[in-house]
Design brief:
Oligomer: single chain
Structural class: alpha/beta
Number of strands: 14
Largest sheet: 10 strands, mixed
CATH architecture of the largest domain: Alpha-Beta Barrel
Distance between the termini: 33 Å
CATH topology of the largest domain: TIM Barrel
Number of domains: 2
Bound molecules: iron/sulfur cluster
Strand content: 15-25%
Radius of gyration: 20 Å
Shape: globular
Strand order of the largest sheet: 11-10-9-8-7-6-5-12-13-14
Number of helices: 11
């Protein structure tokens, strides 16, 4: 176990490099003045371990804000996608000036120096970037937690390369049964996604299924839960977001309030039927013990500062979806200012 400890105004953020759990620890104790056994005792209050963990203490530049740096950054490294899904929330906007590979490396380097723990490569489709593996290894070399969101629309040779890369966490998009998924995403895409999920399971790489719930995919909530149970995956059910390019699918398949309640009830049902599966969802309003999306843990530092999203042109937003409302939430461009200044 490697625990990364980041110095903060209020104390420390602890991050389990491989397990991904983090803790915000308010304290006046000064860990850097303690010896190894005292620090291990301190860490034992937050993590269970049989053998002594490795740890490192990170000292980001002083920051008057609540957090010295985000916990995780989502990077849209590619302006392209290999699919044309009917529910895609990505903007129609053509990326005119994508960051170069070196530009992304410079950003990742800076984020590493600031003590950002996790990089997630997300849609468009990150794996179509010509230097995808090179950029991933750059993240791994800096001991950052590497996550990848993918539609898994690639052949078995590419699957194998991706498994051998050894990312810490992979999110695969699957939107229902084979029929539903292929109708939304294109013929053959379901089988590719499921076979990749199975390859991840064989390699014991942490995995999650992301499912967009529309009136088409709602009947498949149980199908997805069963697939997750069989492949040892977590699940995130996400509401259809009517943003991005206009399609008749988005117009007609969004969940009505009644279907939203049906989704809540379905999620409750699969939660009790598959106790070994972690369901991470917004459809959680009845649950006594909801598993929130990490950005929604409300009693800890401001969600908008814990995560962030960088577009392929280097524009920084608190999250991907805020791009849809125009420049109101655009914080700056990292190619022009660097991340720290923003
Ligand atoms: S939803 Fe994802 S996979 Fe589908 S077109 Fe959009 S970015 Fe590509």
């Amino acid at each position: 176990m490697l625990i990364r400890i980041r110095k903060e105004n209020f104390g420390y953020v602890l991050f389990d490099r491989h397990g991904r759990t983090h803790h915000f620890v308010k304290t006046d104790e000064v860990l850097e003045d303690k010896d190894r056994s005292e620090i291990v005792d301190f860490l034992g209050k937050y993590y269970a371990f049989d053998t002594e963990p490795e740890y490192e203490i990170l000292f980001p530049p002083k920051n008057a804000l609540e957090l010295a740096a985000p916990i995780a950054l989502y990077l849209e490294i590619s302006p392209m996608c290999n699919l044309h899904c009917q529910h895609c929330y990505k903007p129609v906007h053509i990326c005119k000036h994508p960051l170069s590979t070196q530009g992304f490396k410079d950003l990742i380097d800076e984020l590493s120096t600031l003590g950002v723990f996790e990089i997630r490569f997300c849609g468009n489709e990150p794996t179509v970037h010509p230097d995808f593996f090179e950029i991933c290894r750059f993240v791994q070399d800096r001991q950052m937690y590497l996550g990848i969101n993918t539609n898994a629309h690639f052949d078995s040779a590419f699957q194998q390369r991706l498994v051998e890369l050894g990312p810490d966490f992979v999110v695969v998009s699957i939107d229902g049964t084979e029929d539903t998924h292929d109708q939304i995403r294109g013929a053959g895409s379901y089988q590719l996604a499921v076979s990749f999920l199975q390859a991840l399971a064989r390699a014991n790489i942490k995995r999650r299924i992301n499912t967009v719930l529309s009136s088409d995919s709602l009947p498949a909530v149980r199908h997805i839960a069963k697939l997750a149970d069989e492949t040892g995956s977590d699940v995130s059910y996400l509401p259809l977001r009517p943003i991005g390019k206009a399609t008749s699918f988005k117009k007609n398949r969004a969940l009505t309030p009644e279907l939203m309640m049906a989704a809540v009830n379905e999620v409750m049902e699969v939660r009790s039927r598959y106790p070994n599966v972690t369901f991470l969802t917004y459809f959680d309003i009845y649950s006594a013990k909801p598993t929130y999306h990490h950005s929604l843990v409300l009693n800890e530092p401001c969600p908008a500062r814990k995560n962030g999203f960088v577009t392929c042109e280097g524009d920084f937003y608190p999250c991907d979806f805020l791009r849809a409302v125009g420049n109101r939430f655009l914080c700056g461009n990292i190619a022009q200012s660097g991340f720290w200044k923003i």
